[in-house]
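Weekly structure sync, notes
Attendees: PL, DS, HV (note-taker this week)

Item 1: Hydrogenase maturation nickel metallochaperone HypA
DS walked through the input record. Source organism listed as Synechococcus elongatus PCC 11802. Sequence as pasted into the shared doc:
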Amino acid sequence: MASSRVLRQLAIGDRGVRGNKQVASWKQRPLEEVPVNFGYGPSPSPWRSLATIAVIVLVLSLLPNWLRDALFGLVGLLILLPILGILGLRWWINRNLVNEPCPVCGTTVSGLGQSQLQCPGCGEVLQVKDRQLVRLTPPGTLDVQAVEVQDLSED
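Item 1 (cont.): predicted structure, written out as tokens:
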């Protein structure tokens, strides 16, 4: 009886009154009367998922042991490979990522090992060598450090 009432309400929808009966919109219906499949085909039964699981268990019990083990191994690999890939990528990045100050301006610069990059603060071209940032200078350029010398002759 309740199912015919649900079907009648689905047929009327949100149009309001049909005959002398007023029909509520789907938002005002009790939860057990709201269609799960939104009106497309029969409503799925709660036993459907249990039946699917039972069929899978039955099929797996009929398979030879080596084939069942191979299927479980394949499913296990499909679950574990992405996890191992993410963990491996994190390990590789932690091992190769250098986060050091620029030798020219002191701005913190991040780069991967043995790569060239440009400082965002001063625009200097830098290279990562031995987990340190060094200036990349063209051949023939002398890189010197300026040192302030005090004049001792004024004493």
